[in-house]
UniProtKB/TrEMBL annotation:
Gene3D superfamilies: P-loop containing nucleotide triphosphate hydrolases. It comes from the Bacteria. Pfam families: SKI. SUPFAM superfamilies: P-loop containing nucleoside triphosphate hydrolases. The lineage of its organism: Bacteria, Pseudomonadati, Pseudomonadota, Gammaproteobacteria, Enterobacterales. InterPro entries: Cytidylate_Kinase-2, P-loop_NTPase, Shikimate/glucono_kinase. This is Adenylate kinase. One of its GO terms (molecular function) is kinase activity. It comes from Serratia oryzae. Keywords: Kinase, Transferase. Signal peptide: none annotated.
Amino acid sequence: MKVNVVGTSGSGKSTVARQLAQKLAVPYIEMDKLYWRSGWQGTPGDEFLARVNLALAEAAAGWVLDGNYTRTKAIKWREVDWVVWVDYGFFRTLWQAIRRATLRSWRQSELWPGTGNCESFRRSFFSRESIIWWTLKTYRQNRSKYLAEMQDADNGHIRFIHLRSPAETASFLANVQR
């Protein structure tokens, strides 16, 4: 089984992806871990695509991929079986992003091993790189994009699973079988 879990930052996609990978007994691949380098530097385009390709090839029998990154769509959706879209309401998603940013800033734990990247209150609340700002900026765009993707005939090989609430998510996860 090959699954891409998508959704706006703060929606809970990483949590859903980890739980789904565990239930399916396949590797969990976090796109942010493939993208972010030390000092909050992103991986350049071709190198990032190569890293995604390699991660998927190494887990060829099945994987759960966590992340949006539109530029990777041709790679990640080439063989994907499901796209699970975690699409909770705006205020819930925003609250979850704020809560997560606050906890991460407080704990100062490294987000991706070896990068040294930690959230800070300044970065989370008073910066253009704020994950909260990113959530505000992309929520509506992501909804439009994934609604269109679900209708696109080119995606006819993909089963879209649209999760609109924590209850729907819990039910979905409870019913997933290996």
